[in-house]
Amino acid sequence: GENVEQHPSTLSVQEGDSAVIKCTYSDSASNYFPWYKQELGKRPQLIIDIRSNVGEKKDQRIAVTLNKTAKHFSLHITETQPEDSAVYFCAASRGGGGNKLTFGTGTQLKVEL
Amino acid sequence: DAGVIQSPRHEVTEMGQEVTLRCKPISGHNSLFWYRQTMMRGLELLIYFNNNVPIDDSGMPEDRFSAKMPNASFSTLKIQPSEPRDSAVYFCASNFRPRSAVATRANEQFFGPGTRLTVL
Questions:
Q1: Of the candidates A86, B53, B66, B106, which lies 20 to 30 Å from A77 by C-alpha distance?
Q2: What is the pLDDT of residues A31-42, one digit of tens each?
């Protein structure tokens, strides 16, 4: 089955700096890669996703890149703000096989003032 | 739209008791997922349903766990008997999966608020 590894497990940045979280996956058939943000005590919520037919996607301060050959994808947050502090999860899915998501282990992002 | 609804939000029970968690997916969604979240193991998929049919239950930890989806608007996850190591937050999520036989595009999974289970 799919295996998703995520690094780093914790990340501390100064407000205004950029943050990068990286994930690798094992199943070459995976074609859908969402990122979820989970605030303390809350549910995971989708913040951005990318499909295997594109290499990069951007939404305001958030961007995701995908390298299919190397089987890794990354989340980039620019101009970080305190409200970006949360746990971020990457995930991978074959999409067509029933939408089963395999999650990474999460990254605790702390944005310091 | 009320989103995915889960009940109860918190459950405290004693070891050996039966626990039933409930989920109502978003209206119109035809896929439902049960996840368990712990500090040690992260977010784990337990089981998921497409059109009320269980598709993959390989994540169910053992026979003490069972899940049902009797109709498109309701699912239960049951633990019997419960054990302290079952303590976790259990999330239900739903999405819409097109019925096309051709490889379909995955869509966003919407998570419920979760049930925090504590087994003493």
A1: B106
A2: 899 999 999 999
